Amino acid sequence: MIDPKLLRQSAADVAANLARRGFEFDADAYLELEERRKALQVETEQLQSERNASAKHIGKAKARGEDIEPLLAAVKDLGDRLEAGEKALQELQGQLRDIELGLPNLMSEDVPTGDSEDDNTEVRKWGEPPQLDFAARDHIELGESLGQLDFDAASKISGARFVVMKGQLARLQRALIQFMLDTHTSEHGYTETYVPYLVKPPALIGTGQLPKFEEDQFRTTDEPPFYLIPTAEVPVTNLASDVIFDADALPVRYVAHTPCFRSEAGSHGQDTRGMIRQHQFEKVELVQFVAPDASMDALEELTGHAEVVLQKLELPYRVVILCSGDIGFGSTKTYDIEVWLPGQNRYREISSCSNYNDFQARRMKARRRNPETGKPELIHTLNGSGVAAGRALIAVMENYQQEDGSIRVPAVLQAYMGGLEVIDASG
RNA sequence: GGAGAGAUGGCUGAGUGGUCGAAAGCGCUCCCCUGCUAAGGGAGUAAGGGUUAAAAGCCCUUCGAGGGUUCGAAUCCCUCUCUCUCCGCCA
């Protein structure tokens, strides 16, 4: 959520910033509602004040044993007027809040303007795509010929966009997850967390998926309304909801491995084959809570933590900064890390690292005590994949493939694979 | 699933219709005393919002959430959510 004060005072500036995203914010309509709210609120609070004063009066008169009938008569119609005013005010505030919850975050100045992912800017590149002296196969061909990825079996059970993994490939994904968790906890100072995979609406409102992106979620039940998490960002970031952190408690760094569930509504026809885009996938997620002035540095740092994973796996990648047309709803600045996939002969997203500044914090009332003023203030939240395990599996398969269709196990993963060096059809 | 108890400020915890935004303790901040990695004394210390250019001041809201009763609700009534205890079931 954008600071309502800023909306009031600088609606035009806000509209200009959001317009870079291609989002149209009707500042005039908002300000008009806001004008009405102001007038109505002042009036209503005035009535409330009157009621409080007269109630106090009556109480004192009664205590003295005086006749209170005339006093009661004097405030007879106050209640009705007050009720009408409060109701109208509530409705108006609800309308304003609906608008505010639907507004994306203000972007950082250094986010480049652009329409789509084609306009994202490369920031840096690491590693060189492997030079294979044979035709690169994609992960589907590799996995199926090994007999360890089975898309047909998955579709029989659950339909499109699912996979069944078996044998050493299934183990390889698990190894990737363990390796990533260990790296972030022991080398980057993150605390491992285990969190619920089903969440209630307020959690999704807090991180920004609701109310706007209901159709992207898997809703399980109506009463109570439980949603499958689309990312660990939701339960983990909500650990800060309604919390006031002590001044010295920040930064907080959490890492979690969870499955992620996405309806992929609106992505029909994209990446329909293989396990690039699934309804269910595994991800290791990094989340940070930081002081407001520390979030831009933290974003660089967090992105670096995700990069370390790919460096240790010796997977070539590049980092791009998302342009205004591609950046997520709640983010003020996002870096995507794209790993090289020989099977597609291109870089594909494997991590997305975002600074949300106070956007999520305002929604979920995540605060810290400012050491100078002693007053609570909104913290900044960040998150990033560190990294997506399913796509990491694909990347390892395609980058480490050999001519006979077997796959070498990256050095850092061998300890997690019982010393196994090569995955082949033997299982 | 059955029975019961509870939800109060950063934390613990009193408070059953007006004198309660709320005792007390802890924590924190400042001051005094002491002259030493201790103890003691005093003062202050909830959040959110409105008004304002901003601050001060003033006002409003908030004692899990939402309704209701009342001139007036932390306190009474209803619904819901969550937590805990016991029983049952169970990975």
User: How much beta, percentage-wise?
Assistant: 15-25%
DSSP, total strands:
18
Given the C-alpha coordinates, what overall shape results? elongated
Structural Rg = 27 Å
Mean pLDDT: 93
**What is the tally of helical segments?**
14
Low-confidence stretches: none
Descriptive report:
By secondary structure, the chain is of the alpha+beta class. Helices cover 40% and strands 21% of the residues. It has helices spanning 4-9, 11-19, 27-63, 69-74, 78-102, 139-146, 151-158, 167-187, 201-207, 233-237, 295-312, 359-364, 389-399, 411-414, and strands spanning 121-126, 149-150, 164-165, 191-193, 198-199, 218-221, 226-228, 244-245, 252-261, 280-290, 317-321, 333-341, 346-355, 367-369, 376-378, 380-388, 407-408, 422-423. The strands form 5 sheets. The chain has an 8-stranded mixed β-sheet. Strands 5-7-6 form a 3-stranded antiparallel β-sheet. Strands 8-14-15 form a 3-stranded mixed β-sheet, with no helix packed on it. The longest helix is centred in the first third of the chain and has 37 residues, at 27-63. The relative contact order is 0.14. It binds one RNA strand of 91 nucleotides through helix 3 and helix 4.
